[in-house]
């Protein structure tokens, strides 16, 4: 029992560690939108949706998950590159092959360290989440993740975003929309970016504020940071997106959610 982080629009790439004495130390990398369901599938086997490589070799622990990908395609590409660094054009010249004295787990973590520091992944609002504290290792000083990527510890629960009801849609349509402080047009999709400074009244479209931040980085598509056009506070783009999602909540776990202990 305890608390867990509830996240909407969850896209994550995880690392499994085998606890079976016969296969202890083996690892597996996968992608999921529901980590709690996925670890159950791995431990139940292929017949329950698990992978062939993990079937009948458990128990497995989902020790680490990287989440915050904008969509499933982004997450699946990250999964493939982590699984096949020697084939990835971004990693094959950057990451040395597995060393003789290096465990599979250590090698996977070394690859991950490099991945988080190269494009396009180094500009995403990713979170490195240690689900089982006993497996946690620190990143090498020279291979630390970018400052905007937090390293968290604890369980996560994915939450489906329910479609608005007819009544909610009607209420929304009858409500006046805020105006963007940058383009002065209405923000009709509900995705209003606000400054992290509680005294600031900034309201902006995602694209408008992104373009404002990218004035100093014209060669990039996604900003990393910038100054609020209203109060001039220095802001990290990842923090603004996390606030927009409003998806981080602490909830008490039910018995069904204790599978990652």
TrEMBL record:
The keyword Zinc applies. Pfam families: GIY-YIG, SLX1_C. It is found in: Nucleus. InterPro entries: GIY-YIG_endonuc (IPR000305), GIY-YIG_endonuc_sf (IPR035901), Slx1 (IPR027520), SLX1_C (IPR048749), SLX1_endonuclease (IPR050381), Znf_FYVE_PHD (IPR011011), Znf_RING/FYVE/PHD (IPR013083). Its cofactor is a divalent metal cation. Forms a heterodimer with a member of the SLX4 family. Catalytic subunit of a heterodimeric structure-specific endonuclease that resolves DNA secondary structures generated during DNA repair and recombination. Has endonuclease activity towards branched DNA substrates, introducing single-strand cuts in duplex DNA close to junctions with ss-DNA. Belongs to the SLX1 family. This is Structure-specific endonuclease subunit SLX1 homolog. It comes from Daphnia sinensis.
